[in-house]
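Next up, a chain.

===
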Amino acid sequence: MARHGRARTLSPPEDIQARDQSGQRITGRLYGPAGAPLVVVLGGISASRFVAGEAGERQGWWPELVCQGGAIDLRRFRVLGMEYAPEDGAGQQAAVTTEDQASRLRILLDQLGVARAAAVIGSSYGGMVGLAFARLYPGRLERLCVISASHRPYPPGVAWRGIQRRIVRLGLASGQAEDGLRLARELAMTTYRTPQEFAARFSARQSGQAPLRFDVCDYLHHCGERFARTMTAARFLALSESIDRHRIEPEGIRTPALLIAVDSDQLAPPEEMQALQARLGGPALLRTISSPYGHDAFLKETQKLSPLLSRFCQEPCHVRQAC
């Protein structure tokens, strides 16, 4: 049995709060047994601190993987999710970097009295934050898993996100901020997923007359509506720009790393993650999974990710040994 393999008594999920140097609130959520090795789980810009499923409460964004008996086993690990800056209620756009988010994570670890996390697992924007954390605080984690993210933003993604931000700013200027946010999300979904999935899933069948609608457009409209209920325009602009500001020198990261790419990802394609692997200063293992879901595969392909993450969590030395 691996040294992290002993099952422990579960504790109920709980929030933890701290303040950064400017007084801004930082909120995390803890799952799993007290005293167990801590695994930090970070998702995309729309992810929250709610990582696992919770009875009678809101559903987490990765419940199939973060659960009792799951790849990130809540019987054996304590899991920390974190809210990104800026807060939802921020009225003005704030400039924020992945290094800022990494600093917030470090403050939460200090609050918990955790000198060294067993792992940071980051997907999409969370992978960028994980890289920033490993670069800034190398002594604070044992190993790093990065899914669909790299040390720099991919230029086509910068272009798409730039259009999204201009749409949101047009909405703000015209007094229709939520409409702008919805349209930006609709465009984003066409970059998160793949043309192959859209072609297989939709027929471009007409679904309405006034205005003219089609089934694929109805799906995108639903995605935009759902996003606008959980995200403000100012917060979106800050986080979107944070992605495009992201730059990390990988040579300074010596933490053993597992990198997971998706063959159809338009935002963090395998060649970008290969470039990251080649430049990392420590041992790095790259695995590429096949999926029609593109950048959203980290949310959809839980069965393919499960064995990779399970081994990553339970065998701390396998990344180093494999490189």
